[in-house]
Write a structure and sequence with these properties.
The structure is a single chain. This protein is mostly helical. It is built from 6 helices and 2 strands. Bound molecules: calcium ion (CA). The site of calcium ion has 7 residues, from strand 1.
Length: 109
């Protein structure tokens, strides 16, 4: 698993359980529950590159949609509405993607 050694398995399980129902995803709650809030910028950058699956240097909308699957392959995809809200929260410069600095800022917001 991508986050092995960085996050606790039980925290990942709890965060995913909390977000299991469609439209229940809240990025702030998720980042807190999963244990990313308070991690070093270095760890958060590592986390960013797990989510940036094609290694483009940006988290695009299709990667954001599959965000939960970065934590567990069996997790659900985010809904259209959740994906758009997540993107809007993180995309400070309005380019339609989340860059590494935007991601670090979003987690610690
Ligand atoms: Ca990407």
């Amino acid at each position: 698993m991508a986050f092995k050694g960085m996050l606790k398995d039980e925290d990942i399980a709890a965060a995913l359980k909390h977000s299991a129902a469609a439209e229940s995803f809240n990025h702030k709650e998720f980042f807190t529950k999963v244990g990313l809030v308070g991690k070093s910028a270095e760890d958060l950058k590592k986390a960013f590159y797990f989510v940036d699956q094609d290694k483009s240097g940006f988290i695009e909308e299709d990667e954001l949609k599959l965000f939960l699957q970065t934590f567990s392959a069996g997790a659900r995809a985010l809904t259209e509405k959740e994906t758009k809200a997540f993107l809007a929260a993180g995309d400070v410069d309005g380019d339609g993607m989340i860059g590494v600095d935007e991601f670090v800022t979003l987690v610690n917001a």
